[in-house]
Amino acid sequence: MSPSKVSSLDFETFYNIVDGKKRTGKNVHHGINPATGEQLWDCPIGSREDADDAVAAANKAFPAWATTPIEKRKEMLGKFSELFAAHAEEFTTLLCKEAGKPRKFAAMEVGGVPAFIGFHCTLNIPEEKFEDDEKVVTTRYKPLGVVGAICPWNFPLILSAGKIAPALLTGNCVIVKPSPFTPYTGLKLVELAQEIFPPGVVQVVGGNNELGAMLTAHPNIAKISFTGSIATGKKVMEACARTLKRVTLELGGNDASIILPDVDIEKVAPEVAMGAFQNSGQVCVATKRIYIHQDIYKPFVEAMVNFTKTMKVGPSDEEGVLLGPVQNQMQYEKVKGFFEDSKLNGYKFAVGSPDISASKGFFVQPTIIDNPPNDSRIIAEEPFGPIVPTQPWSDEEEVIARANNTNTGLGACVWGKDVAHAEKIAMRLEAGSVFVNSWEKPTPQAIFGGHKESGIGGEWGQSGLLSYCNPHVIHVYKS
Which of 105, 148, 167, 460 could pair covalently with 215 via S-S, beta carbons 3.0-4.6 A apart? Predict the structure, then answer.
């Protein structure tokens, strides 16, 4: 599909999409540009009627979509990807405004949407066959039905696409609920999808927490895929239990990075800092605890500090900006709490100030806390902002235990020249995704999910497709 054939899309008027049609609402809300504090466009708040109508439309559309050949579903996903790519510039600008991301990082997220969709279009739903003298047993995987996709505010586009693509590929219909903090790109993404998919196959209903509760409790939704906080994830799971919905939860993390003594300090320290501060630390799988071998502790922290001082914080389109603001005031206040606690307890600020200066946007300078105690709040909890602690270690067994001493287990990193040795340590870390000689970079080619309270189940990759399916086994006995 060439850009010349792309219909115009209004990027300043926003609707819920129910049964292929645009819907306004009696009540509206709006996002805030976190770099300026300015109020953005009005969005309709989805009502009970909107939710019920979307579920009814999805269930009506499901039988035909589920029996559409997978190659046809892939073809339509491919057309949707091309159509989205033709609007990449508008989506990038919109993402900058609603999320405050530096333009080059917003463009990377926008570019990731076709990549996620494209990879899923290379996959096939597995089929297994067993035969003996008595019978043939064939295991196939069938779509669940209607999926509610509850999406977060830190990566509103890529994480929406990461739910839409596998849900549609496997033959499900999907209802997207974007975060009220970043509603715009999700609403526009699904509005665009109506040019490709039949009515009811992919819909979007935005709103507040009440809408999320409606979806999780709805008896005619088969699955909820939720990305967000641990506290909210527990509420989602509790609500889904009442109807025994399938559920995938991708929740918070407190990722440890272990730095071995043989690393190239000048090369690795900036990478570790990027893992902590990318997207202003607002990444569930960001580096949040850094354990550095005592033999290189001081020079490594110094190298991190030197790099961190070069990280420019500012609005999206300012030249050279690497980090944008914290996305919303609620999170900004939470992050400030970690600064206040660290100051109150007299922890050493290796870089960054304990006092966050007031500005019209939610800007926070990247900050390193040097060797706080193990029971400190900055070690024990997830800040979800640009502040990270470092600690020295000397005993490998002890640092592995320290890294695993958390109720979460989303990601982790090990850095070392001896890759085989680093991988042995990685095998012992209790996390869903462990990265050797890289900061955390999840990819659609591998399933992504957490251990412990970091989540239930996983998405992406070949095996991630199965979270959108029920196994269906036929036993044929030979006469």
Answer: 148
